[in-house]
Design brief:
The protein is mostly helical and 196 residues long. It has helices at 2-22, 25-36, 52-68, 72-97, 103-136, 141-161, 163-188.
């Protein structure tokens, strides 16, 4: 039973971390609200995440982050800060929900699974925004920002409600993204020149 709870809490952490790759503060705010309402169990030492002060601070940070991604030049600049912030947030949020683990195992898994999940998703959003900026001059970036916001909210809610499903969605999205990248690189490679 304890192993199942550990796996479930790790799935929850990975799902929340993946959501941090879309938006850094949205998953933290929703997790904070869920913990504040008693719907999310936090590991020892992370009770502060469910406090009134955390809800207010994360709410302000979330509003500022969402608004910044709708400003055309600021969205690309924000990605340089958001990438390391997403990894840190992914690590932190995974550690906050990884219950009944030794501290060394908790932080190791949080850094690898949580930080890694956030980094993968964040890298995908950075590539998508760069492609959008290059092909549309940034005109499509607000649509991308809306999709990323929806992805962050949806993934966070799914992770809290059905953690295993969130991990499956994350794996599916990463798999499809990898397939698209490999396929595009294959098309970009010129055919070999036949020997004379």
């Amino acid at each position: 039973m304890e192993a199942a709870e550990t796996i479930l809490s790790l799935c929850l952490g990975i799902g929340l971390s993946a959501a941090c790759g879309f938006r850094v503060f949205v998953p933290l705010l929703i997790a904070s609200l869920a913990a504040h309402a008693g719907h999310l169990k936090l590991s020892a030492g992370f009770d502060w995440l469910g406090s009134d002060a955390a809800v207010i601070a994360l709410g302000i940070a979330t509003v500022l982050e969402i608004g910044a991604y709708y400003i055309p030049w600021l969205d690309n600049a924000l990605d340089t800060v958001a990438t390391p912030a997403a990894v840190i947030a992914g690590t932190l949020i995974t550690a906050s929900v990884a219950t009944d683990m030794s501290p060394m195992l908790k932080w190791t898994l949080a850094a690898i699974a949580g930080g890694g999940s956030a980094a993968l998703v964040q890298a995908g959003t950075v590539l998508a925004r760069a492609a959008s900026t290059a092909t549309t001059g940034g005109l499509a970036n607000p649509l991308l920002a809306t999709a990323e916001l929806g992805g962050s909210v949806g993934m966070t809610l799914l992770a809290i409600a059905v953690p295993l499903a969130a991990v499956l969605v994350f794996v599916g999205v990463v798999g499809i993204g990898g397939w698209v990248i490999v396929r595009r690189k294959g098309k970009a490679t010129p055919p070999p020149i036949p020997a004379a």
